[in-house]
Amino acid sequence: MLSEYFSKRQKINLRLANDLANFKKIIWDLLTT
Questions:
Q1: Is 32 helix (H, G, I), strand (E, B) or coil?
Q2: What is the C-alpha to C-alpha distance for residues 21 and 30, in angstroms, rounded to an integer?
Q3: What CA–CA distance (Å, rounded) separates 31 from 23?
Q4: How far, in Å, CA of 11 to CA of 20, rounded?
Q5: Whole-structure pTM over 0.90, yes or no?
Q6: What are the contacts of 10-14 at 24+ separation with CB within 8 A?
Q7: What gap in Å lies between CA 33 and CA 20, rounded to an integer?
Q8: From what superkingdom does this record's organism come (predicted)?
């Protein structure tokens, strides 16, 4: 049960990190064009 919770959290963290990376990329594209 605990490992399930952690894997769920890890998935959420990965998604957040991915969203943040995409967001930074968009900002960078806006700034550099």
A1: helix
A2: 14
A3: 12
A4: 14
A5: no
A6: none
A7: 20
A8: Bacteria
